[in-house]
Amino acid sequence: MASQTGPDQVVTVENPEAPGPFVVVCEHASNAFPARWGDLGLSAGQKAAHIAWDPGALGLAQSLAAGLEAPLVAATVSRLVYDLNRPPQSAGAMAARSELHDIPGNAGLPTADRVARTEAIYLPFHATLRALIARRLAAGQATALVTVHSFTPVYNGHHRAVEFGIIHDADPALARAVLAQAAQLPLISRLNEPYSAADAVTHTLALQATPQGIRNVMLELRNDLIATPEAQQAMGRTLAPLLRAALAEVG
Amino acid sequence: MASQTGPDQVVTVENPEAPGPFVVVCEHASNAFPARWGDLGLSAGQKAAHIAWDPGALGLAQSLAAGLEAPLVAATVSRLVYDLNRPPQSAGAMAARSELHDIPGNAGLPTADRVARTEAIYLPFHATLRALIARRLAAGQATALVTVHSFTPVYNGHHRAVEFGIIHDADPALARAVLAQAAQLPLISRLNEPYSAADAVTHTLALQATPQGIRNVMLELRNDLIATPEAQQAMGRTLAPLLRAALAEVG
Questions:
Q1: Which residues 163-182 of B have a C-beta within 8 angstroms of A?
Q2: Keywords on this record (chains A, B) (predicted)?
Q3: Which residues contact A92 (CB under 8 A, 6 or more apart)?
């Protein structure tokens, strides 16, 4: 494992030379609030909650990357400091409100701070991912992109029945093939639930896969299903062969 | 003018802080063959010809950028070393043949060389452009992208009647508005001629504008119309107000 670290490091890359046909990405892997940006005025409870990160997603992504022999590109900063799955002009990139919570440190954020976070977090994260993908493509290496997320079972007071969401951007082929494969799982699996591209949640796919013409899909697991390291490991072991089969089908 | 230079510099940025609503890009601005990559076995005539660059495009882009009060991002390396309007996996990124000419230095290019050129040219050029756009978007600055190209009057022995080509990627709005404005010009103007997105010539738009949801258009001028600095200046002065009017129309 080659992992990049440092006080200003916003991204880690595990197994950059891994030979499998996928690149795994986890934009909401971390609920860390580096000193440079402070804790945004959040309570300990808020910093631990799903508004700050996707609980379980990193462990799942690591297990999935292992099963796929894939590089893993993961964030090391909370999505509330910068949401790496949002473009810099969107309100959600540095959200002043998330679900039921105000984010004090993001309220009325000055332009200079928006630009500084974009430069410090968004640009290097996506440049790292872009370079990894471009090197593979230049070398003629088969490459598909899978992003790994989790969602809360209860949102704005409503219970979500869906357990496994499979979301696509402009090219639905891989997502549809994953959905077909998911029929064998004991999970409630749905295409484009609990979100879809219409909710502006496919920025990473749109930025990193669609322009390069590579297959791509966003996976969303309900976070109560991946609440422990053991559950994350098991889910990754379950999903890896399913993704391989889906990709083999669509090419 | 803030211009970046140096032996390994593959991109220049003029007027990065310019306040106008456009960012101007010229991927095929240069027919330079830096020593690092050599001259690819080309004759002096081939290096001066349209296969190596878009003659006149840089002068036009500079005049247009001045008229639009826009930053200009331009390449300083020939498209035959790396074509910045192509993704790294495409044959055209480091073409072994262009129109009627073999490119000896690109024939059977080893994987390591393809990766090295991608890392040295494609990645920094597009990272520079991406950062410039992202900073503007984070600051809430209105931003549209225009790429400036020229095409040869005779291609593969066929004369091209079109004089001004206006080409779009996924979002045709700005291109259509430019076409409507172009009706006032004494030019034969056409949408998606002599190329279109179907010919894979809109990579920069697809990479730098479509995912960010910003308006974008690719301009192609027949190079006999912009053969002198005076003609380039004049064409830029003509097109700048037309682009401003088109953008004002589509928002």
A1: 170
A2: Hydrolase
A3: A83, A86, A200
